[in-house]
Amino acid sequence: MKRFLILCITISLLSTTAYGWGRREHAAVAKIAENHLTPKAKEMLHKYMHRRSLVYYSCYADDYQPLYIDLGWQPSNYRRMAMFPHTYCVDENCKPPHYIRKGDEYVKNCLYYIDTWAKELKENHKKMNDSVRLTHLALIVHAVGDMHCPVHIRYPNDTSLGVYKVMYGKKKMDFHRLWDAGLVGGVHPWSYTDLARVIDIATETEVAEWCKGDVYDWGEDAARAAIPLRNYQPNEVIDPAKFKRDHLETGELLLRKAGYRLAKVLNGIFE
Questions:
Q1: Dist CA 148 CA 152 (whole Å)
Q2: Do the Cβ atoms of 253 and 224 come closer than 8 Å?
Q3: 3-class DSSP state for residue 249?
Q4: DSSP three-state, residue 174
Q5: Do 61 and 23 touch, CB atoms closer than 8 A?
Q6: Contact at 8 Å (CB) between 59 and 142?
Q7: Dist. CA 254–CA 3, nearest whole Å
Q8: What are the Cα distances from residue 57, in Å, to 30, 134, 208, 261?
Q9: Is 53 helix (H, G, I), strand (E, B) or coil?
């Protein structure tokens, strides 16, 4: 824990990183996951996360560069550090790779890291250094949310992550910022607890269906769902009211699935 605290003291905000979802959305994903944890997972997370909620750590990966040192980052290489694995690639069939492709180290497959961190925790959580264990958990909490964000998916014909200008009503902005600002949170003037409560509405059958398979299957599912949300070109004029009517429901669905799938990952670690 001492190392983790020292790293956090040396915080530096990631001012140039392309984030996904707003803080409220990440917090809502963590809250939904908490609602669906097993008693054992709740007990172990309460212990390992120092009696703090998952919500407390839901944005640490965006806020604290030092967390990445445990992944092998060099503090002097800021540009590389700013490319923390928040994203993943898919092929023309929306299928993600199950490995890190040459040249993509740390960058383009957060699914691989979620899978790797979860397996390491499942096998060794009792023996792990306190700070490494907490770091792995905090990064999983954040990355499962990120993998469901439409502008965190690199398609073969569009690897931009939405980092291009559009006219959103009368305002010129990065398309990616529509998600940073929070499409869902921007429409609903709620706290994260309210947002979690009103979108945590799936049946047990739906939750079971959405949580089938593994993180790579979930990545494929999210990529297919996000295609219509990415069909906007640079300099396109977007009508905010129509954009919200067309895509709000899908945005809510992706957040909902992220919460249930995060619970699935965490429950699996401690089963």
A1: 8
A2: no
A3: helix
A4: strand
A5: no
A6: yes
A7: 35
A8: 9, 9, 26, 17
A9: coil
Per-residue pLDDT of the chain (271 residues; tens, 9 = 90+): 444 433 342 333 333 334 468 889 999 999 999 999 999 999 999 999 999 999 999 988 777 655 555 555 554 444 444 456 788 999 999 999 998 766 665 557 899 989 999 999 999 999 999 988 998 999 899 999 999 999 999 999 998 999 999 999 999 999 998 886 667 766 777 889 999 999 999 999 999 999 999 999 999 999 999 999 999 999 999 998 899 899 999 999 999 999 999 999 999 999 9
Within 13 Å and on the Cβ side, how many CA atoms surround 182?
A: 18
Q: Say if residues 264 and 211 touch (Cβ distance below 8 Å).
A: yes
Q: Are 128 and 121 in contact (CB under 8 A)?
A: yes
Greatest Cα pair distance, the chain, in angstroms, is 55
What is d(CA 26, CA 31) in angstroms, rounded to the nearest whole number? Answer: 9
Q: Which residues contact 144 (CB under 8 A, 6 or more apart)?
A: 29, 33, 114, 215, 258, 261, 262, 265
